[in-house]
Amino acid sequence: MNNASNALVIFIKNPQKGHVKTRLAAAIGEDRALVVYQELLQITKNVTDQVACYKQVWYSKYVESKDLWPIETYSKHLQVGADLGARMQNAFKEAFTRSFEKVVIIGSDCVDLSPSIIDRAFQLLEDQEVVIGPARDGGYYLLGMASFYPALLRGKRWSSPSVLKYTLIQLNEAAIPYQLLPKLNDIDTIDDIKHTPKLNLKLL
């Protein structure tokens, strides 16, 4: 059954050659980097299809009307903001303004993300204010809130190894109850793929 009080926000980049997985493209070329990203999008959709909640896809440049994400099950939006933090802040604000009680945001870079981990995030938000899925690169693959805390999305060097560290410092200093999920690996570099068997044979 669809839980109408939970919103899952999925941040994606429009799959365009030269605009996705740029660090990976430096090693394997833009064409293959695009193939990797398209595979990551498909994996992400396969996972989120299995989560029972209200689902939104937020595009980086423009909204695709006919693509991988059917409008029957995914509402579509355009990311707005000067940096990733501002864009996520706007997405959280939109969801909470619409009276969702728990909002979880994910990207499309984590092959090991599962429906059970997303379900666990929503479950933890019954008792915690914030839930975070730490990524091995020092960022996070998931951020969930039971109340809107925009300050958590400000003052960060996004895509740097310090994002998680300073987010946890903020949470501790503000005494905001939070819980961590299992640490997983985002796919950003050639080494990430080499350590991710699900992608090795298909894409290298």
**CATH architecture annotation:** Alpha-Beta Complex
Radius of gyration over C-alpha positions, nearest whole angstrom: 16 Å
Main beta-sheet strand count, sense and barrel state:
7 strands, mixed
Instruction: Count all strands and give the number.
Output: 7
Average pLDDT works out at 93
Order of helices and strands: EHHEEHEHEEHEHH
SS strand fraction: 15-25%
Shape: globular
Please report the distance between the alpha carbons of the first and last residues. 39 Å
Residue windows where pLDDT falls under 50 for at least 5 positions: none
Structural class: alpha/beta
- Summed up, the helix count is 7
CATH topology: Spore Coat Polysaccharide Biosynthesis Protein SpsA, Chain A
Helix content: 25-40%
Under CATH at level 1, the class stands as Alpha Beta
Looking at CATH, the homologous superfamily is Spore Coat Polysaccharide Biosynthesis Protein SpsA, Chain A
Throw out a few tags for this protein.
204 residues; alpha/beta; Spore Coat Polysaccharide Biosynthesis Protein SpsA, Chain A; 7-stranded mixed β-sheet; 19% strand; globular
Description:
The mean pLDDT is 93. The chain starts with a strand and ends with a helix. The chain is an alpha/beta fold. It has a 7-stranded mixed β-sheet with strand order 3-2-1-4-6-5-7, with helices on both faces. The longest helix has 19 residues, at 30-48. The protein contains 7 helices and 7 strands. Helices cover 36% and strands 19% of the residues.
